[in-house]
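Researcher: Here's the sequence for the chain we discussed earlier.
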Amino acid sequence: MLDIRLLRERPAFVREKLATRHSPVDLDAVLALDAARRADITAADRLKNDRNAVSKQIGARKKAGEDTSAIQAQVREMGDQIAALDGKIRAAEEELRRLMLAIPNLPQDDVPVGEDESANVVVGQWGEPKSFAFPAKDHVALGEALGLFDLPRGAKITGAGFPLFVGRGAKLERALIQFMLDLHTREHGFTEVSPPFVVNRASMTGTGQLPKLENDMYHVDADDLFLIPTAEVPVTNLYRDEILPGPLPMRRVAYTPCFRREAGAAGRDTRGIVRVHQFDKVEMVAWCAPEDSAAEHQRLVRCAQTVLERLGLTYRTVLLSSGDQSFAAAKCYDLEIWAPGAGRWLEISSVSNFEAFQARRMNIRYRTPEGRTDFVHTLNGSGVSLPRLVVALLENGQQEDGSVLLPEALAPYMGGTDALRLAAE
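Model: Thanks. This is the structure I predict for it:
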């Protein structure tokens, strides 16, 4: 959520930034409501002061034997006016919060301006796209031949987009999760947490999924709970309505399954495991002082890049345009891996700086060196998402005989196995 003071003091600046997000916002309505609310607060405070002054006269007049019925009636009338104003203020505050929750974050100044992904900028690349001397297969053909997953049975159990990994495929998923958790905790300074996989409405609102993306989420109606779309939600909410307990930055990492209906994505990448409704992911979350968030953002990007480099996967780093980044992000980098079987780049990680946008929604604060409290900056990044990582490993590691060579970094997690071969191990 934006700071209402920014809207009051720099409305032209806010309008200019929101225009780059291509998100229509009636800023005039927000400012008019805020002005009316503040005027009512001033009027209510004045009435309360007047009532207190008049009330003090009642005792003195009673002692003097004077009739106080008129002044008592005046105090009651003031009380009725105050109650009416207080009710009006509460309603205005609720409506103002509703409107403020619908306003997206403002892009940082160095974010490229554009309507969609066509304006994204590639800012770096590691490795070169792999080519083969034989016809490359895609991950579906490779995975089915190797017996790594059974997509028809997954669909039978639940529905399309809910993959079933079996045998060595399940072991590969588990190995990748353990590899990433070990890397982030042992080398990157993250503390591992294992959060709930279901969260309440306040948690989803705090990180910005609600109210905008409610239709993309799996909702448990009876309890008004949501299956998490990412570990970002429960992990960032760990400190909702708190002053952070430790020195900054604080860093946490978590493995969770993720659930996304993606109502607006029907028909896209429906074959295989490129786009699914349930997937595993390792997520990094950080809280830091505002002056450190730019450096922390770059650090998170580097942590995600290290995962891909250790696995020997070609990737590129993309700075998202103002129209392509998420509702809550002020700046976002995507990491995209090369999938030779598909012949294209696939997004595998998004690393975002939210500045104080989420913290203001969640009321997460920190204590400054001067002793005052202020909103912390929050950041997160995929460290990384599993299905497309499996896609890249299969398609980049494939051999002409149908086997798949595995990265050396995974050997300790795969029982020393260096390849997935057609004959069961």
